[in-house]
Write a structure and sequence with these properties.
Elements: H1 2-12, H2 19-28, H3 31-37, H4 43-63, H5 66-82, H6 86-104, H7 108-132, H8 141-144, H9 152-157, H10 166-189, H11 191-197, H12 212-225, H13 227-246, H14 257-270, H15 277-281, H16 284-299, H17 301-313, H18 320-330, H19 334-344, E1 349-353, E2 365-367, H20 376-380, H21 386-395, E3 400-404, H22 418-421, E4 422-428, E5 431-436
Parallel strand pairs: 1-2, 1-3
Antiparallel strand pairs: 3-5, 4-5
Length: 446
Amino acid sequence: MLLTAGLLLDWGRFYGRGAGVLAAALWLGNPLVVSLGTSAYIDITLALFVTAALNAWERWARTADPRWLCLAGAFAGLGAGAKYLGLFFLAAFWLMIAIRASKARDLKPIGYFTITALVGLAPWYLWIVYHTGNPVFPFYTPLFGTSAWGSTEGEQIVAAVTTSSGSEAVRQVAENHISRIVRGLPHLALVPFTAVFDRGEYNWSAPLSPAYLFLIPLCAPFALLDRRTRGLVVLVAAYALFWLAVGRDIRYLVTVLPVLNVVLAATLVKLPEVGVIAPFARKSWLRKFALPLSTLLLVAPGPLYAGYKIFERGGVPVSGAQRSNYLERQLPGYAAIAAMNDLEGSDYTVYGLFAENLRYYADGRFLGDWRGPNRFSRVLAVLEDSEALGRHLREWGACFFLVRHSRPRELRPADSVFGAQFEELVSGDDFLLYRLTGVPCSRQSR
């Protein structure tokens, strides 16, 4: 997060005095960025690689020094190796460089970029293909073959092509994505509003900065008319459409925020020269205080959100006991994980239904997620049959069954044999932990 802010400080200098400061302030002023930048999500890392690649690409475009182009390729490759979303920017870079190279009738830039990008991404994609046969595993199984780890969302996107193959499958996948884009355009227009005032739309994630609500409509017309920023506007718009096609998770927009911030900052520093604003901007007192005040206003939402979350959650735990108390308050079901760790150490297997975020705290083996061979749908299909449920869990080696839900007792078989199959150990308002009867937890004793 901080390295990206530093890159924005540097990159923005190409667009005028103060543009880098404003771009970095807008980045750090995003509560969503602050939230993701202090968590284990990889989206901030992808944003760093994309920002570094764009910074290097800009320098190459201005100097024609191939060393900057090699750096752009390396960072773009690392971005694609960090997350599939990085493939969009890899393709965008390649297209931009190919257009420039074709005009200059010099193909060497394409070679520089392609070779260095392959160095960054090849190890990861070769590993994926070797183990799965699918370069974008677990997505697009009709195109690359099915897998136990197939994505539920991906299967829905391409459900219509399960009986198709070859070019027909590709055509139907493309049509499905185009349909998602067209139907999602009204949603896209409202993102700056919904991401602040209707966060339930995005699973109650941290909000975007409210500054986008007025900065985007204010700056967009000028940014499109300015030849310096027009290409970046096209890149942001293309990624926004891509976002509609692949999934409307607000985290996925973080990758393009640095680019958007540079566009907005570059436009803001030029606005004092425009129309009716120009006479006021010539006043010395306004020119003296405009940049620091604007920076303060843009960066404020991020630290304020961080302070609010610290106040809401309590002080940072500094001992083992404080850590346990903190996690019990913040994570429904953590008390069950702590109980299993105390009872069995690391020699146990638990199946967690809707409890996937607790796996990080389990010392033992943790099963259960939205995807994969032990996905939730397989358990939900037999949830009304105690014997079938117990059989599934035993086959997977589980000796504990954890249910995390707002009404956990509703998610249990109602038949008469449930009590003989499952022993209730720990309970709370939003979780229940059962032990499977007659199943030893120690994997060595089986």
